[in-house]
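Anyone able to model this chain together with 2'-deoxycytidine-5'-monophosphate?
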Amino acid sequence: MSFIVAIDGPAGSGKGTITKLVGKKQNLINIDTGAMYRCVSLNMIKENIELNETNKIKEILEKINIEFKNINDEDRFFLNGEDVTKEIRNQEVNDIVSQVSHIPIVRESMVDLQRKMSVGKEIIMEGRDIATNVFPNADVKIYLDASAEERAKRRLKQNAEKGIDIPYEEILKNIIFRDNNDKTSNVAPLKQAEDAIYLDSTNLTIEEVVDKIEQIIKEKRS
Ligand code: DC
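re: yes, here you go
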């Protein structure tokens, strides 16, 4: 029996953290779709393929093998048999992943893979177009939002913890710019599915958001 929870929302809304926590508590397999776009980006970097080399991109997509494994309670990502968990978070990948995720053939191929990975399973998946495009028939659809100012504050705090010093105003400008790009994109634009539940986390703690989503899942399952 399959059961699908789809969580979409803008960058910095806390989707990643929330999805991991809810997945664990509700025993749902968490498929990290962002990591999949990161694997494609890393594969392109390793093979020296540029963003406009469509035929070469097609070739790597035909033979790409992306696997998720939970080892010692840790999610690990494998690209063509190699553990790339750390590498997919490096700066080189960060610099191109958004553009890679907007290439139509990449999108098609990953959406196809996301659907295949989920057949017959109980999963939770977060991204930009999960409820609108990947799983229009998902059992639970959540659109997780937060104000741009709150998301900038959260990023400022995360940066401070990592010793990164970028002014608040610059972070906010960047978030607004990215929101606009995501929402107006020709490929998989970010938008709330008509039947999704809107959840604004601006004034909520992580625990409160997790609780609310768990409640929605429990109601659906009962
Ligand atoms: O969540 P993340 O930073 O790992 O995502 C990496 C990139 O992929 C980011 O630019 C957003 C994009 N992405 C997407 O377009 N669709 C998804 N379902 C997930 C991520």
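The chain is about 50% helix and 20% strand.
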